[in-house]
């Protein structure tokens, strides 16, 4: 009878140690009813241009109405080529001086997009920026435990093969990433572990690249093949991304997973449409952002344009699948 007990003792600490390798942040809801509210925006940093300032202003207004707990940035934080270093003034010009509303003075949980990798990627992760603006919490892959929901932030740029094989005129800052296969294998292992351990009502994964998209870039095949099966196998509710400069909501046809694109933080791409096999619920090829409200039983998503008009909203009650 001793053998199974020994096995258990050996296995459990290993799992804990593996999961602990990705940074874990605690963000308990501040509201008395323990509900959580947040905004998600992507593909934004253009010194206010291409309506970045208009989107920022409306985020401030909606953020105030919803009394948000935090903001998620899904990457492509600084165009065209990320930051040149920790002293790059673009950080203030495109972030600090743009998102000035009181309601947006909350943590910004941020990941890197492909354009961020074209500059000094490590600069965006540096505590120097957090000293300049305490809202800035940028890491490659990490977890935010927000009680009602666990958010798994995934560094998706290294998945995309063409950035490695055909970088064209761009150079990617793969410090701390290369070799690709090892990095991805570890990332997926940590994610799987974290998802399996998560006891939160809502499991939400955040990446820069879309798994499903009907816009310019379309589906990201590397993510469809390598990331998606893990999300489906572990009951992930929402996948939130940017990369395509539009707003989208697509439903999986064979799982509860919802794909949400919020890549309308500044320059938008008009008039591109590439259908895919999942169910398109909403597509807007203009600028804007997304909000999310979560309780223990309900999720509510809304998309807004530059005028703050609600373009699409969608709700789900947990346990409503038959
Ligand atoms: C900014 O938004 C307005 C709508 O409020 C739109 O007419 C205009 O084309 C947008 N500008 C850019 C540069 O996208």
UniProtKB/TrEMBL annotation:
Enzyme class: hydrolase
Ranges where the Calcineurin-like phosphoesterase domain occurs: 38-246
Sorted UniProt keywords: Glycoprotein, Hydrolase, Iron, Metal-binding, Secreted, Signal, Zinc
Pfam families named among the record's database cross-references: Metallophos
Gene3D superfamilies noted in UniProt: 3.60.21.10
Similarity comment text for this entry: Belongs to the metallophosphoesterase superfamily. Purple acid phosphatase family.
Name assigned to this protein: Purple acid phosphatase
Species of origin: Panicum hallii var. hallii
């Amino acid at each position: 009878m001793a053998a199974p007990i020994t096995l258990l003792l050996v296995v459990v600490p290993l799992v804990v140690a593996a999961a602990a390798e990705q940074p874990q942040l605690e963000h308990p809801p501040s509201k008395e009813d323990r509900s959580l509210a947040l905004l998600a925006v992507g593909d934004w940093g253009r010194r206010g241009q291409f309506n970045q300032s208009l989107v920022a202003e409306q985020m401030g207004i909606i953020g105030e109405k919803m009394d948000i707990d935090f903001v998620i940035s899904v990457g492509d934080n600084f165009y065209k080529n990320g930051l040149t270093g920790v002293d790059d003034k673009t950080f203030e010009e495109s972030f600090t001086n743009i998102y000035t509303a009181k309601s947006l003075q909350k943590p910004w949980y941020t990941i890197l997009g492909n354009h961020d990798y074209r500059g000094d990627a490590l600069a965006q992760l540096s505590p120097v920026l957090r000293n300049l603006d305490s809202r800035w919490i940028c890491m490659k892959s990490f977890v935010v435990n927000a009680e009602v929901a666990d958010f798994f932030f995934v560094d998706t740029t290294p998945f995309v093969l063409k950035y490695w094989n055909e970088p064209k005129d761009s150079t990617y800052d793969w410090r701390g990433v290369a070799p690709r296969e090892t990095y991805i294998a570890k990332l997926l292992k940590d994610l799987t572990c974290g998802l399996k351990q998560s006891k939160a009502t809502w499991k939400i994964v955040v990446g820069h690249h879309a798994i499903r998209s009907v816009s310019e870039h379309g589906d990201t095949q590397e993510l469809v093949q390598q990331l998606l099966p893990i999300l489906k196998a572990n009951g992930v509710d929402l996948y939130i991304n940017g990369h395509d400069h539009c707003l989208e909501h697509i439903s999986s046809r064979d799982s509860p997973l919802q794909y949400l694109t919020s890549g309308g933080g500044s320059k938008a791409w008009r008039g591109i449409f590439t259908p895919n096999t999942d169910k398109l619920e909403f597509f807007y090829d203009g600028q804007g952002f997304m909000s999310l409200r979560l309780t223990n039983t309900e999720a509510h998503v809304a998309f807004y344009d530059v005028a703050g008009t609600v373009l699409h909203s969608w709700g789900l009650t947990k346990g409503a699948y038959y």
